[in-house]
Amino acid sequence: MTRISDRRLELRHDPLLTEKVVYSVGPQHPSLPAPVRLVVQADGELIERVTPEIGYLHRGVEQLCARRSYAQCAALLSRCEWLAGANADYLVSAAVEQLAGIEVSVRAQWLRMLVLELSRILSHLFWWGQLGLEAGQITAVFWALREREPGLDLLELLSGHRWHHGWIVPGGVRREPPAEFYGGLARFSGRLREALEHFEEFFSDNAIWVNRSELIGTLNSDYAQAHGASGPVLRASGVDHDLRRDAPYLQYDRVSFSVPVGEYGDVLDRYQVRMEEMRQSLSIIAQCVEAIAHLAPTTGGAGGPARSAGEDGGHGGSPHQGIEVPAGEAYIAVEGPRGELGLSVVSEGGPGPARLHLRSPSLYHLHLLDELCRGYLLADLFVILGSLDIMIGEVDR
Amino acid sequence: MPQDILLILVRGVILVVVCLTAFAYLTYLERRVLSWFQWRVGPNRVGPWGLFQPIADGVKAILKQELIPRRADKVLYLIAPIISFSAAFTMFSLIPVGERVFLTDLPIAVLVFLGLSSLAAYGVILAGWSSQNRYSFMGALRSIAQVISYELGLGLALMVPVMIVGSLKITDIGNIYRAETWHPAYLFVLLPAGVLFLVSAMAETARIPFDLPECESELVTGFHTEYSSLKYAMFPMGEYMGMSAMCAIAVHFFLGGYLLPAIGGVDLTNWVGLIVGNPDAVWGPQEGYWTVVSLSALGLSTTLTFVAKTLFLILIFMWIRATEPRFRYDQLMQFGWKVLLPAGLVLVFLAALFVVLMPDLGGGAQSTMEVSMYVPR
Amino acid sequence: MITTGQYNWVALFLLGGACVLGLAFALAALYRPAARPSMLKRLTYESGARALGDALLRFNIRFYILAIVFLMFDVDVIFIFPWAVSFRLLVFGDNNIVFTPIGPSALTEMFVFLGILIIGWAYAYRKGALEWV
């Protein structure tokens, strides 16, 4: 303990010296969704530096994936992006399709889009509740989860699972949605539309919340772009960039939706961008349902042509365990709820990837914290953290 | 004489038990109320409607392992919850709960009350400091700054009725709400003062949106991060007691105290006395909490009225807790110093003007103050 | 009606509250399991990681400034309280109709005092003593 006594000595010589305080936020802190450690150096309550220390949730997913089949990769990767697991399923499937040159039917593409947008909404709802908690609004999280619940039920109806569905498979989707799915979806959308209005009244228009978020944690567009920000965080900083529109995949070029863009890049902008995105996603979902209604289901009911080898071999395993993917490289990116979620796959042939890398937006956003928090108060740290919507499972994989 | 002491002890034990149970159930109430707001069920497993939940919580707190952090200053660490609890508890000795139902009716009750509410902050400060944890320390520092800032608002808000009545005695102040002395003009000064008092009280008892000493999402749990078992349980207990005491004082000063509402100019408080008759004839003249025990209708009805009004204010506190996000620290301080303090000073001006302009109102209680002796006639 | 007996109740509550709580702590010590926490368990909890030193910090000076401003106003409030209580008496005496000879000065002097207070407050405001950061 020489360190402490040294410091005391120093203090004795300089009676007016005030100390910098170093707080260790995490790995187990009530406002952190999953373990990560932030070492916060502050002068009183004024933050001078934030150093994220990651690795508490490291599971070696990328390495694990390199020894497993694509189906297993999808299952593992959806455990990295657990709030919107459909994205991981889609990434793996799209990579396989690109490498193997599989064409996916249009109907299946629409169905995939529908589920991706649904999971974006569910993820944003969770974020809304979490942000409420971090701002001391203890009711928001329950309201958010209540609206989220029917959405999870829908996904369960679709795939049998609520979080890690594995419904999007190479070649299409696992099965045709049951008839009651669309009715449930309509109810969910209608209800959520109302709830969003309610949320706005309840939280967004609250003077305390506006005071806590306006011009807090501003991120300018140059810094955001230079440091790899993407998704709502980038758009809130005024950069009009959305993969769904700028590099359309699936059928995104055939739906109309607007991309909300912020002005100052502060917490309020990030908040409003996400709130607006939920509305846009609802409208995309409506368009998807419309399009699906006009497309006949393909034979076999799976919405996709290729259910190649191993279709019947699925005793507990996956139906496409035996897909032989030719050698090659692929990079697939989607506009996930948190930003550009990318998957880079190197295949040397065989049923699984030789190497796989996930580009997770949260990793980049976590390292924006230092820039965002510097000069703000300790209390702002948590609101800023909440506004970035960081998913630790993506950061440590 | 030994019988007197025995009587005092028995009464004291009854009071403590009643108070502890009442406040344990306040935690239950808050959990249920919050769960209504949050579309969930709340505690409903222990006993019918979860009514035994506070008991289960208490037993659990008692049976928990004792955990004193190694670095902690042991003496202060143990004293802190005791201060916090007993300061809040003592507030209840000051508050009359019904017509002639009171333990004390001190001529300086307001000052004692303000003193006790500051004393409760010592528990928080000592707890935070003695734990030797940076989060706790930060919570304690915030608590000091917050409590002292809002104490001014609290004192200034209470000063308004005090000026109008000219007494620091709680029952004297309650008397202006009687049907025969009430005048609508009071609203002009008492209403803003009441709002100021409630806001300051919320900050003083560190409730959301002012719960910065604890604020879970920032400072783990703030000043009591290092506390566990029964010692931990005493902080929420003290907080609830403080909150109820604040609400009780607010009821006395701004909501007509224990008086039943006067409907159409008919003061129900008097009616109860008239209809049921004078209990003194049966039980002999009674004063103190025992009036209720001796089943005086007036005492009982006014006590129930008082409890109902206090619960109403407590429910408002819970409502606000369920709907508001938390202030940021600097905003809180600025709100206290830049809004509430000048507002309080302006209110004191207004109260002085009110007294001068409406000389007929609010008088009649001055003679209780000894200061009157020094006023030249 | 003013008896010292009333104050005894207040003291009794203060002491009684403390004693009951002390007693409860002692009883809890008898009832709970005797297992002593390990040294690791007794470490300071700073959200999971090993604590970065103790909390005996020389904290930022702002608290000091605030304390001074508070002291100023709190003392002032203490001055105002006696005036507030006897205000009616000072102005009207006991007849509630006409001003006493010292009535006008009781009114104006305190207004002057409050005025000075507000000037002090405005000064602190301008100097930024009320800004938290």
Briefly characterize the structure:
The complex is a heterotrimer of chains A (397), B (377) and C (133). Chain A has 397 residues and is mainly alpha-helical.
Order of helices and strands of chain C: HHHH
Structural class of chain C: mainly alpha
What count of domains describes the coordinates of chain A?
1
Please identify which CATH superfamily of chain A we are dealing with. Answer: Cytochrome-c3 Hydrogenase, chain B
Which parts of chain C are unreliable, with pLDDT below 50 for 5 consecutive residues or more? none
Number of helices of chain C: 4
What features would you highlight for this structure?
heterotrimer, A: mainly alpha, Cytochrome-c3 Hydrogenase, chain B, 3-stranded antiparallel beta sheet, 16 helices, 8 strands, globular, C: 133 residues, mainly alpha, 4 helices, flat
Write the layout of secondary structure elements.
The complex is a heterotrimer of chains A (397), B (377) and C (133).
Chain A (H helix, E strand, L loop, with lengths): L1 H12 L7 E5 L11 E7 L2 E8 L7 H5 L4 H9 L6 H16 L5 H29 L5 H20 L8 E2 L2 E2 L5 H26 L2 H7 L7 H6 L4 H6 L6 H4 L20 H27 L34 E8 L4 E8 L7 E5 L1 H6 L2 H5 L4 H11 L3 H4 L2
Antiparallel strand pairs in A: 1-2, 2-3, 4-5, 6-7, 7-8
Helix pairs in contact in A: 3-4, 4-5, 5-6, 5-12, 5-15, 6-7, 7-12, 12-15
Chain B lengths: L1 H36 L15 H11 L10 H21 L14 H22 L3 H32 L4 H6 L10 H19 L11 H4 L9 H26 L7 E2 L2 E2 H9 L2 H5 L6 H4 L3 H27 L5 H29 L20
Antiparallel strand pairs in B: 1-2
Helix pairs in contact in B: 1-2, 1-9, 1-13, 2-9, 3-4, 3-9, 4-5, 5-7, 5-14, 7-9, 7-14, 9-13, 10-13
Chain C lengths: L3 H28 L30 H24 L1 H6 L10 H25 L6
